[in-house]
Structures are given as structure tokens and as C-alpha cells.
Amino acid sequence: MAARHALQPASKMVTATFRFYEELNDFLPPERRRREFSVPCAKAATTKHMIEALGVPHTEVELILVNGESVGLDRLLRDNDRIAVYPQFEAFDVTPLLRLREQPLRTPRFVADAHLGGLARLLRMAGFDTRYDNGYRDNEVADIAGTEGRIVLTRDRELLKLRRITHGCYVRALKPAQQLHEILDRLDLERSIRPFSLCLVCNAPLRSVDKATVMETLPPAVQASHQRFTTCDVCHRVFWEGSHWRRMRETLAAAGARAVAPPPDDEFVISDHVAETARPRSHTAAPPAAAPANSQSGLKAASPAAPPPPKRSR
Fold it and tell me: Which terminal CB of the chain, N or C, has fewer other CB atoms within 10 Å?
């Protein structure tokens, strides 16, 4: 009886063999990378459950083959199943196969978790709509992604395992500039860069504004030396090509040089003239406190009142 009782737990398990491809191996312990390995699975386990139990968020997976047949995340595993798990494809058209999402998001919009403020600012600088707040909780990030159709950016793989998150990127790089390059390369976004078209502070579109309408907000030196300005209709900051402009452009050029070549001298591109900022003076309310040096704007404040693998072919 004792021996029979001891076998009962095993009878509730099945054994499946897994093989993960390309960068999905980064989520596995070294002994399981780039090779087949067998693991016990509960009889009711789905492909999603086991893939994530092995450490890979489902948002990183594009295609699952079980015994050579394309399946979804809810496929129940059976004894002796062989599962091949693939990341996003760039060089091969796998449309005839069952992909895990009905369709890609037509317009890449992002929500970054609370630890990726630097990346969020750089994505805004590059012209990509990016929601960010350093107080976001995981559930808030998931809710924003679902209701607004945004791609979740995070270094927290547990966040990406939430079922209601359908599009997400696990960010491997540690420094913001490297993270920007990683996201642009992975999602093939270099041709979509629109530098300096969004406010770095509030993520709203910038528009050109006549100098005369913002003259009183400008420092005297800027009044004398600059002629072209943009403004944000949400926070009402005014931007112009200042001392940080070249450094910001170099950062974008390093991430996607083809997309940020300088315009001709006689061509004014609104998005090319954002580097310093001023807040309009208010005669009815006290000016806001100066932003700290590491504020979300990433820009030099113009006054005390102003917040500052190669292409994969799998």
C-alpha cells in the first residue's frame, strides 16, 4: 500500500521536452540553454503555464510548436509532448502559422514601468508616445497597456507574465541609451523616429509657435539669439535649440543614425528644435518649483521657474 501511495503523485504528472530558441535562452539557467531538456508537468498544465514556470514571459514568445504543430498559449500538455518555443521573427514570414497574438499593434505606443524613467524620456525624445510615472504599480501598468493598446517595457519578467498583458518587451540593457538602441532594433523602429516631436515632460505633441507670443517667457540671451520655437499645450513649456540639442541628437543618432540626419539649413523642422525650455510667467499664480536635475524632462531649465544580436534571421 505504501508503495502504491507513493506512485500516485507521479501518476498526476506528464513529461514534456522543451527547446527554446535565440534570445529566449537568456531567461533559462545555463544548463538548459540551446538544447532540449525534459521536465515533469502537471496534467492540467498549459503551454503558457510551463513556459513561464521555466522562466520565459509569454510576451517574449511569438510561436509555439508542439510535436511540429503550431498551438496557442492555452494548449494542454500531454505526456511525451515536444515543445519548440520561438521569439519574435524579423526575417521569416510565419503568417501561415498560428502566432500568439491576433495582430501587431499598428502604432507602437509604450508604457514603461517605474524603473525605466530614463528609457521613457529617450523614447519621447525619439517621438514615441510613452506613458511613464515612477509611482506606477504593476497592475496600473497592465491596465494602461490593456485599455490603451500599449507595449509594456520592463525589466521585471514577473510583470510580463500577467495574462492581460499581450504585448511587452523585457529590457535587457541596463543603461538608458543602450535600452533605447535595444528597443529600436528589436521592434525595427529606426524609420519611425520623429526626434523632438513630443514633450519630454508630459508626452504631449509639440507645435511651432511664433516668437512674439512667447517673448516674455524667454531669457534675454535667448530673445536675442533664437528665432524658432515650439511649445507644449499641456505643460505650456517653450522649447528652442539650445546647448543640449547637439548632445540629444547624438544620443538618437547612436540609436538610429539613419533616422536623425540633420535637415537642410533652410528647412525648419519643428521636431529638430527642442533642447532648452521655459515656462510661461503667470501673473495670477506662483511659479512652479524648479525641477531637480534628474527630472523627467531631461532638459536644462532656462530659468529658476522652469523644470528642467544583429538583425535576427531565425
Answer: N
